[in-house]
Amino acid sequence: MTTKTAQANPNIAFIKYWGNRDNNLRLPVNGSISMNLDGLFTRTTVTFNSSKQDSLTINDHAVLGKGLERVSSILDLVREMANINERAEVSSTNNFPAGAGIASSAAAFAALALASSHAAGLTLSEAQLSRLARRGSGSASRSIPSGFVEWKMGTGDDDSVAESIAPPEHWDLTDCIAIVNASHKKTGSTEGHAIAGTSPLQNARVEDTPRRLDICRNTILKKDFEAFANIIEHDSDVMHSVMMTSNPPLMYWQAATVGIFHAVREWRANGLPVGYTVDAGANVHVLCLTEKAKEVEKRLRELPGVENVLVAKVGGAAQVV
Ligand code: PMV
Questions:
Q1: Is residue 318 part of a domain?
Q2: What's the first-to-final CA gap in the chain, in angstroms?
Q3: What is the mean pLDDT of residues 201-224?
Q4: How many helices (H) and strands (E) does the chain have?
């Protein structure tokens, strides 16, 4: 019986992943770039033992059905690689508030890939871990490496992996995450990826992605905040245009979401270095230079519809604890 624990940060995408060319392997239609979110993490413990079935608890609640199946499919890949048959007990906790609208699947599957492979006696390379995490949730591939990360679409399963393009200390950015109330039930990203191709705008978005990736990568490497803010807002708006025009349409924004967009652009025009981006939800990630984070957090808290603000600097790699 072997027990191992690992932890991983969630990440925020600057150039978004939306749509798969292979839904089962989670091979994306385009590359993406993100930053890990320091201080927020999922910690997962995996024990292989003699029980008859895999089991899963998240924040001390037993999970069955589809959630457990998704975890078991990753454990199956690990069992195959390690040539073992034991079932596993998986228990996972998030240190960020449940329902805060932080996509937890990236941190969860990155921590699961690391903890389960170690518990099975495997020592996988960063690329192998990224690939394994990708099978649970595409964006989880980006929560394995450290800092600023690019997930290359690759030519297939073997090379569709994420790697670090700059360490956390490269650029002192902070993500101020404005939590707005989203009372409607949102469509999960797995279903969202599956209908991305129904939008007439998706092909144009995908074709133009190499250009946006190059711009974004360069703005990070050169630490050019103004250009960075422009490209992340543009990319987020492009992805949400696809979402809104897919069939069925996905409208993740709330009135407060749009209110924050206007405020952020006005603040930037008046000299405050800020830029927004939104994943598959209503909450707005407002990126800024860390020296301005207190001011940005204060201003966000004063906006209508903002219920809370979480603050995260650039995070490191997934690690065994
Ligand atoms: O990894 P998934 O299937 O949860 O998809 C993530 C999709 C977005 O968060 C909207 C974009 C991204 O690149 O993280």
A1: no
A2: 18
A3: 98
A4: 8, 16
Q: How far apart are CA 171 and CA 191, in angstroms?
A: 34
Q: How many domains does the chain have?
A: 2
Query: Does 296 contact ligand 1 (Cβ within 6 A)?
Result: no
Half-sphere exposure of 93 (CA within 13 A, CB side): 5
Is residue 137 within 6 Å of ligand 1 at its C-beta?
A: yes
Ligand 1 atom closest to residue 239's alpha carbon, by position in its atom list = 10
Q: Verify whether ligand 1 is closer than 6 Å to residue 139 (CB atom).
A: yes
Query: Residue 320 falls within a domain, yes or no?
Result: no
Q: State which ligand 1 atom lies nearest to the alpha carbon of 139.
A: 1
Ligand 1 centroid, distance to 259 Cα (angstroms): 23
Whose alpha carbon is nearest atom 4 of ligand 1?
Answer: 189
Q: Range of 29's domain?
A: 2-169
pLDDT digits (tens, 9 = 90+) for 6-52: 999 999 999 999 999 999 999 999 999 999 999 999 999 999 999 99
